[in-house]
Amino acid sequence: MRGSESELEICAFRRYDEPSTLRFVLAEAILGWQCSGGLLSAHLGATQIASRTFTTADGLPRDEVGCVVPDSKGFVWLCTSEGVSRYDGYQFVNYGVAQGLPRRSVNAVLETRTGIYFFATDLGIARLDVSKAAQSRTQFIPIPRQDGMAVSRVSALFEDHAGTVWASSTNGVYRVENPAGARPMLRYIHFGDAVVTSLLEDRYGTLWAGTEFGLCRRWADGRIEWLNGEGSPMRRDWVHALMIDREGHLWAGSLHGLWKFEISGSAAPKLLRDRKSVV
């Protein structure tokens, strides 16, 4: 937590539409709190919560877990600084650079609606090749940039309504071209060389990005619009997390608190609550 006691740093949003199906709970840097003592598994009962902490003694590659992602097959993927781990409810199967990951630090996992797995690392993105034998050295395929330049650290992955995969990085945004093909590529999308930490699509098909310089959106025609201009209440506020609620409002978690906007397909967003409001 930074600043005064009244200022909370919002780092991540996660919404569960069916709480009864939740099997795992992770303190994943929410309100500035990061889990560094392993994975916390919790059974949510009506009157009590029974929990157990998993660590390297149970098979995790590292005690500190940065993300927890359940997939459609019932597995849970865990991001660590020593690779990614897949948990089946009984044991952990770990993957790292020996299996083809471009860097051992894994920051995000995405399973697309067509069943393709992508992994964000400190040195770009890799795709899981399910046709390869388990623990093969080429089980993960690093995805290069189209222009041949080096790929920077990727922190988040997002699939939009059309099935396009986007990635936020330390110097902008990447779009995955030919994601299911033999030679997938990363197309660099310029966001003013800003560090982009979160991505989201609204109901109008607009791509929103949380960056070190504030909040911005990319229109369908490729135009970039920043919401951090002179006089803006979000000027120079680092946005870590984004969420669209059931009413279509945009929530932005930032270095200094929480913001809520009413958005439309054309007009400027209307600020409903700022960091000084009670949310």
Give a brief rundown of this model.
The protein is mostly beta strands. It has strands spanning 28-30, 33-34, 39-44, 49-54, 67-70, 76-80, 83-87, 92-95, 106-111, 117-121, 124-128, 140-143, 154-159, 165-169, 172-177, 185-189, 196-201, 207-211, 214-218, 224-226, 239-244, 250-254, 257-262, 270-273.
**Protein structure class:** mainly beta
Mean pLDDT: 80
User: Quick one: biggest sheet?
Assistant: 4 strands, antiparallel
Total DSSP helices: 0
Largest sheet, spatial ordering of strands = 5-6-7-8
Q: What percent strand?
A: 35-45%
What is the straight-line distance between the termini? 18 Å
The best one-word shape is: globular
Low-confidence stretches: 1-10, 14-35
Q: Could you estimate the helical fraction of the residues in percent?
A: under 10%
Radius of gyration equals: 19 Å
User: How many strand elements?
Assistant: 24
Pattern of helices and strands: EEEEEEEEEEEEEEEEEEEEEEEE
Give structural notes.
The protein is mainly beta and 279 residues long. 0% of the residues lie in helices and 42% in strands. It is built from no helices and 24 strands. It has strands at residues 28-30, 33-34, 39-44, 49-54, 67-70, 76-80, 83-87, 92-95, 106-111, 117-121, 124-128, 140-143, 154-159, 165-169, 172-177, 185-189, 196-201, 207-211, 214-218, 224-226, 239-244, 250-254, 257-262, 270-273.
